[in-house]
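Tokenised fold entry reproduced for absentees:

. . .
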Amino acid sequence: MAENKQMLLTIGAFILILAVSITLYAVNIINWSQIAPLILALSGIWLLYTAWAQRKTPKKYQRSAFSTMSLGLLLLAVAGAWYLLSFSWLYSLSLLLFTIAALIIVAALKHK
């Protein structure tokens, strides 16, 4: 039953993310090219929250909190790289490489 509540909460959060993105575009706070990075960034933040929430109660055949956190950080990095692409592709590349390197180092230290 708890899994159904978590799934409903995630679906509701994603619909809210879409609504916020469309509303920000409608009131001219962001332009159309920033809608997708905003959706990715807010989804990454949501994944970080769910990783934090599931760290206390891990399930046997479910993603670990570390895996969910890593996916959330990668989504945030992709969104940031997409935004930085408007300035220079080198900024985007460096952000992605920095994030991947940090996750590899943390994973190596975690499994020591």
Summary: The longest helix spans residues 2-26.
